[in-house]
Amino acid sequence: MEQNISYWDSLADWFDKKQGDEGDLWHRALINPTVLRVLEAVDGQRVEDLDCGNGALARQLARRGAEVTGIDASARMTTLAERREASNPLGIRYHTSGATQLSILGDASFEAVVCNMGLMDIPYAEGAMAEAGLAPLGI
Ligand SMILES: C[S@@+](CC[C@H](N)C(=O)[O-])C[C@H]1O[C@@H](n2cnc3c(N)ncnc32)[C@H](O)[C@@H]1O
Fold it and tell me: How far is the CA of 127 from the centre of ligand 1 (A)?
């Protein structure tokens, strides 16, 4: 497991409260609209939300018709995301896994992978991108 996960486990309850169901103001006003515009239509698509946090973006994607799988290395974070899924089911599946070891997904494939505000927290981001089947953009 990656080195910063106990840190995220300890922050998870605060983060879930801050993010709420649809993300904090910063996510709602700026980040998520941009991500959703880049992804374009997700209706009927299988989307992997890598480093999904409390699932705030995953839920927006599911509400737009995507079949969403959320991955986060913090077990406490996926527990809180699952709790929100249980109280308002959208068919989102969550897994606790480090982004560089996605064997938990088996041979699952996705039309899109989104990693929102996540790569900067992963010590080996190139490994996470390779594991997700993405080529580095060189930025
Ligand atoms: C800044 S939060 C972003 C969460 C969410 N994507 C959002 O925008 O609200 C970063 C998330 O990445 C997760 N994370 C950190 N390192 C990770 C890793 N190596 N693999 C998977 N998830 C990781 C943390 O547990 C945390 O939930």
Answer: 15
